[in-house]
Amino acid sequence: GKKKVAAAPLVAKKIVEQKKVTNPLFEKRPRNFGIGQDIQPKRDLSRFVKWPKYIRLQRQKAVLLQRLKVPPPINQFTQALDRQTATQLFRLMDKYRPETKQQKKARLKARAEARSAGKEDAPTKRPP
Predict the structure, then answer these.
(1) d(CA 109, CA 105)
(2) Alpha helices, DSSP H only, in 1-126?
């Protein structure tokens, strides 16, 4: 024979008996979105927008950074130096800055003057 379906618990029966009290002033007017019927509701189309290039790039970069593991020697360049270390670095780099056009001109002019004065021509060493 067929099995009997278990009877619904008492709690469930009580809920069914209580009908929701609806306000008669608010009338339900269901809309039909079939062809030729009601106008479809406005949807959020922001996902399908052609975004400006810089926005697309920053989003792609964010996705790549999430998905790829960047090796530490490369990753160190994603954070800027703090102010104190930066000033130290710039001070060090300033020592090795190549000479400007004016500095070269002055150096060669001094060499030419020394040569015209009669001293032997020793090549001047330009700064590193």
Answers:
(1) 6
(2) 10-17, 53-67, 72-75, 83-95, 101-116
Specify the pLDDT at position 11.
Answer: 65
* Nearest Cα to Cα of residue 108 among 94, 95, 119, 121: 121
Q: Are 38 and 32 in contact (CB under 8 A)?
A: yes
Closest CA to 99 of 75, 60, 125: 125
What gap in Å lies between CA 32 and CA 40, rounded to an integer?
Answer: 9
Q: What does pTM read for this prediction?
A: 0.38
Type of residue numbered 13: K
CA angle 127, 106, 98 (to 5 degrees): 30
